[in-house]
Amino acid sequence: MLCGRCRNICPTSAIKLDTEEKGVCTNCNLCAEVCPVKAIDSFEGKIKPEEIGLHYTKMQSYNDRKIKINCVNCMECYEQCPANAIYYEEGKLLIKKGDAGASIINCSLCSLCARVCPTNALKFELNRIKLIPDFCVLCGECVRVCPTQTMRLKDRYPEGACVMCGRCVKSCPVGALSIKPVSWNGSIEDDCIRCGTCSKACPTSAITFDPTTMDKPEVDLSKCILCEICAADCPVDAIKIKCNLPERKLEKHSIKINQSLCVGCGLCVDACKITLKGDPAMSLKDGLAQVNEMKCIGCGACATTCPAECIRVVKIYDKKRVAGQASDVVILP
User: Of 21, 188, 302, 333, which one has the greatest count of Cβ atoms within 10 A?
Assistant: First the structure.
């Protein structure tokens, strides 16, 4: 139902709710909880806990919900609303309703933030992130590498990492949340196109790929931290996402070949034949590599294969950002 109640109750802001339509109520019930005069209807305390999910799902009460006449305009609901769905008009507080198009993502405890912290202000212990605020120098490295983009700098220290308190699970009105281990056996599907994107994206070098000797990338599970950046970046979904990272859609790409460096080996053509199933975008003309940009899908297999590194592929992804790059632009090699 994507109400965002778990986001409201998370003490470390490790859960992020995004909406396509800004300023629309997501029915998180926070306004009713903070109202000092109970001017906003709430299910809390009125029905049995096991029935809450049913009421939230039907949404009938929330669709009809209004701020009642006994409102004293204290503006607490206005200030606290995480969706900015409460607005002031002609002397009254009102709630904007509709389809917010919400999506939710949470810290996956991959530990990348702790791995890159230069002062050890973040540590990964007992399957949770531990913060030592006195050590933090606000460098922002943890924010830069966070795959889920829940990390952010707040005042004097970072927040956004899960501490496994379980409050989100207890607060969910429909029982959609749980805490459970996630595992991956390192398998890569047979529809892998050998582009090497996963090996380039992996922040711990757990994935290796040599296109001249290997049929597909290999995974060293002892190095894998289940950050899922490889799965999010895979252009053909050959690595399945186990948790909650969004897949990234390749919106644009460009490819440039420095023919003064090209040795005419043809490995880029061979790689492209596999990727495009026999109808390659790459070819040799007068012994040098060239590309048919109408056929090119921007996978980067040619750049990964090229021994002279004369091929440069620029990928521009949509705004569902996944860390590992400082922006939505990825450059190969």
Answer: 302
Domain 108-161 classification at class level: alpha beta
pLDDT at 98: 82
Phi (first) and psi of residue 134, to 5 degrees: -65, -25
- The arrangement of strands across the sheet holding 311-317 comes to 250-257, 311-317, 329-332
Query: Which pair of structure tokens corresponds to residue 77?
Result: 């609901």
Domains 108-161 and 250-332 share a fold: yes
- Assess whether the previous peptide bond of 118 is cis (omega < 30° from 0): no
pLDDT of 234 reads 86
For residue 153, list its beta bridge partners.
158
| DSSP bridge pairs for 158 | 153
Nearest to 328 by CA among 309, 311, 314: 314
> Which CATH number fits the domain 250-332, given the four candidates 3.30.70.20, 2.60.120.10, 3.40.50.800, 3.40.50.150?
3.30.70.20
**Which DSSP string corresponds to 185-235?**
-----TT-----HHHHH-TT--EE--TTT-SS-EE-TTT-----HHHHH-T
Predicted local confidence at residue 99, as pLDDT: 81
Residue in 220, 281, 232, 225 with CA at minimum distance from that of residue 108: 225
Tens digit of each residue's pLDDT (9 = 90 or more) over 194-210: 888 899 889 999 999 98
| Average pLDDT along the chain | 84
pLDDT in tens, 158-198: 999 999 999 999 888 777 888 888 888 999 998 888 888 89
Decide: 92 and 7 in contact? Cβ < 8 Å: no
Domain range list for the chain? 5-104, 108-161, 250-332
- Detail the DSSP E strand segments found in 235-281: 250-257
More confident residue, 105 or 245: 105
Residue type for position 52:
I
